Amino acid sequence: MAEIRNYTMNFGPQHPAAHGVLRLVLELDGEVVQRADPHIGLLHRATEKLAETRTWIQSVPYMDRLDYVSMMSNEHAYCLAVEKLLGIEVPVRAQYIRVMFDEITRLLNHLLWIGCHGLDVGAMAMVLYTFREREDLVDAYEAVSGARMHAAYYRPGGVYRDLPDRMPQYTENRFKSASTVKTLNENRTGSLLDFLEDFTNRFPTYLDEYHTLLTDNRIWKQRLVNVGVVSPERALQLGFTGAMLRGSGIAWDLRKKQPYEVYADLDFDIPVGVNGDSYDRYLVRMEEMRQSNRIIKQCIDWLRKNPGPVITDNHKVAPPAREGMKSNMEELIHHFKLFTEGIHVPEGEAYAAVEHPKGEFGIYFVSDGANKPYRMKIRAPGYAHLAAMDEMARGHMIADVVTIIGSQDIVFGEIDR
Amino acid sequence: MSKLETLGQSLQAQFGERLKSLKLALGEATIEVDAADYLQVMQELRDSEALCFDELIDLCGVDYSTYGNDGWSGKRYAVVVHLLSVAKNWRLRVRVFAPDDAFPAVDSVVNVWSSANWFEREAFDLFGIVFPGHEDLRRILTDYGFIGHPFRKDFPISGYVEMRYDPDQGRVIYQPVTIEPRENTPRIVREENYGDV
């Protein structure tokens, strides 16, 4: 009889289901995974080292490029950490704007996740629907910041500017007739808040459609149920956070447990899984989208009623208004100092974390009082999740590895940093 | 008594002399321990009923060699661990300095929290801090065959080698870097209360 040996296979780094550049070395016994060894770092850009040579404000755009499907949440953790070190207060309106855009970001992230996860597992239609919704949300990004992905909208001390009163419009061209343009612009006649309100009214119906497509789908359940089960004890040991931890049945959400910004005043629920398998994590994330939609609605209501400043008036941190700079000597000096030398942050260290769509995203700063961080450490949720790949995939079939990668919601921008 | 003070008292009661320092600042608790006590302290942090740190959130290396204006006199490398207690809902930062600057080594906590595995590999890769007790201490973020520890302060930001495709040899080659590192905004540490901030 022939000698039977384990077979080693490279999964990636250029595999469509690897969600970027993951090289997974799989040791197989037939089709069963004996050992999974993820090789990461193919997208390593040394963001933390770069931040040491940039002023505090210059690193904000690098944050967008970490987890490039939840841009503003990354900026949020960065700004919170800087604000903690500086000890400054952020205007309430800015806090509401941040919370609203955090939740928009969560929708963006989860929509991309469910689309791609569906695609990996074989539900080819999902991605078409989710990208339809994402289109509206990236338009909201574009309206506030001018960029559809890498916004750099949050700044230490608040947000860059107030919400716009009008939405960008579609215009007629060779490909779009007058009547098409009219339909496309229908919900864009008002302000950004009107546009978002219209979206939040439509979105629950979309979610119901996704549930119809997937939740009771026989193939979907065959691929997800009992795949990648993690017990609550192991989930804690492995450093899981976010939906991965909640899927295992631990009701832990920083928005509730250690509330930052205005989350304490908002009304929302935390979904929790029971079995800790991929299917429970799917259900948790689906319900999170519904809750995010609720939070966005509440923020829109508040923002309509309460105008006010959106960035701190401490000009050692945030630049003064343009008009003031033209007429007032002191503001000119502030402006000059801020843009040549940057913010000076007191000596000390701080760790600030947000409930990022993927889990706990934290920034740890060591400052020696300079205009640049002495050391920045990014705590990326996906890093801990991917580290558990070996344990989650062991004993599963090779096709289940794809499900597990999908349910971990991996993005290499943040893991490789 | 605030939650932070309760945590401070529990830490004091649990470790007493073994705490080299205990700092409560900016709503965060930081303790510093000796490298010799580190593993034992971490074990107790997890197992003690009063503290109950059930999750290791983050572990990273820090190179203090160019800290501040006056030069750093203490040990060069530190390992900073961020712990979270889901049960008690509090956080703690633990710092331990590696005793030997030439060969920095700190005990591995991978048997206390499994999540330390990759974080320690990262600290080893980027700072060259060795973790005795870690069974699989390979590089993780840098390239295969990378030389040096890039996050050390004496490692230049643009590195030593660059990679390009060489049409003559028909393959990808490494060569010394051709770009000069430049500093657009100089690093400045101002004296206390400069400009009344």
UniProtKB/TrEMBL annotation, chain A:
Recorded GO CC terms: plasma membrane
Domain NADH-quinone oxidoreductase subunit D: 120-417
InterPro entries per UniProt: NADH_Q_OxRdtase_suD (IPR001135), NADH_UbQ_OxRdtase_49kDa_CS (IPR014029), NDH1_su_D/H (IPR022885), NiFe-Hase_large (IPR029014)
Name of the top EC class for this enzyme: translocase
Compartments in which it is found: Cell inner membrane; Cell membrane
Membrane topology: Peripheral membrane protein
Primary localization: membrane
Catalysed reaction, written as an equation: a quinone + NADH + 5 H(+)(in) = a quinol + NAD(+) + 4 H(+)(out)
Family that this chain belongs to: Belongs to the complex I 49 kDa subunit family.
PANTHER family in UniProt: NADH DEHYDROGENASE [UBIQUINONE] IRON-SULFUR PROTEIN 2, MITOCHONDRIAL, NADH-UBIQUINONE OXIDOREDUCTASE 49 KDA SUBUNIT
HAMAP family named among the record's database cross-references: NDH1_NuoD
Annotated function: NDH-1 shuttles electrons from NADH, via FMN and iron-sulfur (Fe-S) centers, to quinones in the respiratory chain. The immediate electron acceptor for the enzyme in this species is believed to be ubiquinone. Couples the redox reaction to proton translocation (for every two electrons transferred, four hydrogen ions are translocated across the cytoplasmic membrane), and thus conserves the redox energy in a proton gradient.
Protein name (Swiss-Prot/TrEMBL): NADH-quinone oxidoreductase subunit D
Taxonomic lineage: Bacteria, Pseudomonadati, Pseudomonadota, Betaproteobacteria, Rhodocyclales
Primary gene name: nuoD
Automatic annotation (TrEMBL), chain B:
Reactions performed catalytically: a quinone + NADH + 5 H(+)(in) = a quinol + NAD(+) + 4 H(+)(out)
Known function: NDH-1 shuttles electrons from NADH, via FMN and iron-sulfur (Fe-S) centers, to quinones in the respiratory chain. The immediate electron acceptor for the enzyme in this species is believed to be ubiquinone. Couples the redox reaction to proton translocation (for every two electrons transferred, four hydrogen ions are translocated across the cytoplasmic membrane), and thus conserves the redox energy in a proton gradient.
NCBIfam families for the chain: NuoC_fam, PRK06074.1-1
Chief location category: membrane
HAMAP family: NDH1_NuoC
Gene3D superfamilies (alphabetical): NADH:ubiquinone oxidoreductase, 30kDa subunit
EC number(s) per entry: 7.1.1.-
InterPro entries to which the protein is assigned, alphabetical: NADH_DH_suC, NADH_quin_OxRdtase_su_C/D-like, NADH_UbQ_OxRdtase_30kDa_su, NADH_UbQ_OxRdtase_CS
Broad class of enzyme this protein falls into: translocase
UniProt keyword terms in alphabetical order: Cell membrane, Membrane, NAD, Quinone, Translocase, Transport, Ubiquinone
Chain ranges of the NADH:ubiquinone oxidoreductase 30kDa subunit domain: 31-160
Protein name per UniProt: NADH-quinone oxidoreductase subunit C
Sequence similarity: Belongs to the complex I 30 kDa subunit family.
Pfam hit, one: Complex1_30kDa
Subunit annotation: NDH-1 is composed of 14 different subunits. Subunits NuoB, C, D, E, F, and G constitute the peripheral sector of the complex.
Membrane topology classification: Peripheral membrane protein
Subcellular localization(s) per the UniProt record: Cell membrane
PROSITE patterns: COMPLEX1_30K
